[in-house]
TrEMBL record:
Swiss-Prot/TrEMBL keywords: Methyltransferase, RNA-binding, S-adenosyl-L-methionine, Transferase, tRNA processing, tRNA-binding
Source species: Neptunitalea lumnitzerae
Protein name as catalogued: rRNA methyltransferase
Keyword Transmembrane: no
Cited CDD domains: SpoU-like_family (cd18082)
Gene Ontology MF terms in the entry: methyltransferase activity
GO biological process, one term: methylation
Taxonomy, superkingdom: Bacteria
Record-annotated tRNA/rRNA methyltransferase SpoU type domain positions: 17-160
Keyword S-adenosyl-L-methionine: yes
Lineage: Bacteria, Pseudomonadati, Bacteroidota, Flavobacteriia, Flavobacteriales
Xref: SUPFAM superfamilies: alpha/beta knot
C-alpha cells in the first residue's frame, strides 16, 4: 500500500551542501532543482549569472519547495560567488565532463567538511574559469549515445551520491 506524505517515515536532515547554479534560469529546471534540494536536505541554493524564472511553471514543478529551501539570487558572476564559498571552507565540486573529470562515484565526499556543487547552464555547462578553481571536477558515467543529461537530473544523481557518502 502506498503511503501518503503524512505517513512517510523519512528523517529530516540537513547536509553541508550548497548548490551553485551557473546561469540556470529555465523555470522547469529551477523548480526541479528546488525539489531535489528539499528532498536531499541541502542547506542552500545559489543562483548566479542570471535571474531565474520564478513563475507558475517553476512553482508547479517545485511543488512549493522554494518556500522551504533557503536560496539566494546574487548579482555576482558565478566565479566570484564560488571564490567566496572557497574562502568559507567549501570544497568546490563542479559537475561537468572534462578531459580531467573523475567519475562521481569515485569522489570521496566524506573528505569534505562542506561542499558546493556547481552546475552549469543548460546549453553551456560550468564556466571555464569556475572549472579552473574547482577542487574537484566530476562527471556522471553514462552508457548511452548522449554525453550529457538535463541539469536537474544530473543534480539529483550528484545529491544522491554525495548525501549517501556523507550518511
Amino acid at each position: 500500500m502506498q503511503l501518503t506524505h503524512d505517513q512517510n517515515q523519512f528523517s529530516k536532515r540537513q547536509f553541508p551542501i550548497t548548490i551553485v547554479c551557473d546561469t540556470i534560469t529555465s523555470p522547469a529546471n529551477v523548480g526541479a532543482i528546488f525539489r531535489a534540494a528539499d528532498a536531499f536536505g541541502v542547506e542552500k541554493v545559489m543562483f548566479c549569472g542570471g535571474i531565474p524564472d520564478f513563475g507558475k511553471r517553476m512553482r508547479k514543478t517545485s511543488r512549493s519547495t522554494e518556500q522551504y529551501v533557503p536560496f539566494e539570487v546574487t548579482q555576482e558572476e558565478t566565479l566570484q560567488a564560488v571564490e567566496k564559498l572557497k574562502e568559507e571552507g567549501y570544497t568546490i565540486c563542479a559537475v561537468e565532463i572534462t578531459a580531467n573529470s573523475v567519475p562521481l562515484n569515485k569522489v570521496n565526499f566524506k573528505d569534505f567538511a562542506k561542499v558546493a556543487l556547481v552546475l552549469g547552464a543548460e546549453n553551456f555547462g560550468v564556466n571555464n574559469a569556475v572549472l579552473q578553481i574547482s577542487d574537484v571536477v566530476t562527471h556522471i558515467t553514462m552508457y548511452g549515445n548522449n554525453s550529457s543529461m538535463n541539469v536537474a537530473q544530473a543534480l539529483t544523481i550528484a545529491l544522491y551520491e554525495s548525501t549517501n557518502a556523507l550518511g
